[in-house]
Write a structure and sequence with these properties.
The chain is of the alpha+beta class. The protein has helices at about 1-15, 70-85, 95-100, 115-125, and strands spanning about 25-30, 40, 45-55, 55-65, 110-115. The chain starts with a helix and ends in a 14-residue tail after the last helix.
C-alpha cells in the first residue's frame, strides 16, 4: 500500500500541486508519519504533517514532532523488520535519540524550507543551480 501511495503521489499528484497558487498537502496516511505524531479523530489515523508547494515545487515539509519514546521505538523496530523482509540495509536503533525523547522532550513542531527552491521561485530562475550559493558543492 505504501509503495502504491507514494508512486501515485509522486507521479500523478505532485506534478500538479502549487502551479496556480500555493498549495498545502496535509493529512497523510499514518504510515507516512516518519517522525510525526499521528492523530486519530475516529475517521482514520493521519500523520500530523504537511508539505507546501508553489510554482510546481515542494518548498517546505513540516510536522508535529513525535516525542513519545515508546512509540518512536515501536516505529523504528517495525521499520527495521520491514527492511529485513525486503532485504534492505537495516540501520541500528538510535539509542541516544530515544534516550533524549525519554528524558522529556517537550511538544514541538518543525518545518524544513528549501531556501534555494524559494530563491529560484522568487527570482524566476529556470534551474535551481542558477541560485545555488556554492554551485560545485
Amino acid at each position: 500500500w505504501d509503495a502504491i501511495f507514494f508512486k501515485v503521489l509522486i507521479t500523478l499528484v505532485e506534478p500538479h500541486l502549487g502551479r496556480e497558487s500555493m498549495t498545502f498537502l496535509s493529512e497523510y496516511p499514518a504510515s507516512q508519519a516518519a517522525l510525526a505524531r499521528i492523530r486519530d479523530d475516529g475517521r482514520w489515523p493521519v500523520a500530523e504533517r504537511f508539505e507546501l508547494y508553489a510554482g510546481g515545487v515542494e518548498l517546505a515539509n513540516a510536522f508535529d514532532e513525535l516525542t513519545d519514546a515508546g512509540e518512536q521505538r515501536r516505529r523504528h523496530l517495525a521499520d527495521q523488520a520491514e527492511r529485513r523482509r525486503l532485504g534492505h540495509p537495516v540501520p541500528p536503533l538510535d539509542e541516544p535519540f530515544l534516550a533524549a525523547l525519554a528524558s522529556g522532550m517537550p511538544a514541538t513542531v518543525g518545518i524544513a524550507l528549501g531556501l534555494e527552491r524559494l530563491m529560484a521561485l522568487v527570482l524566476g530562475a529556470e534551474n535551481i543551480h542558477q541560485v545555488m550559493p556554492f554551485p560545485d558543492s
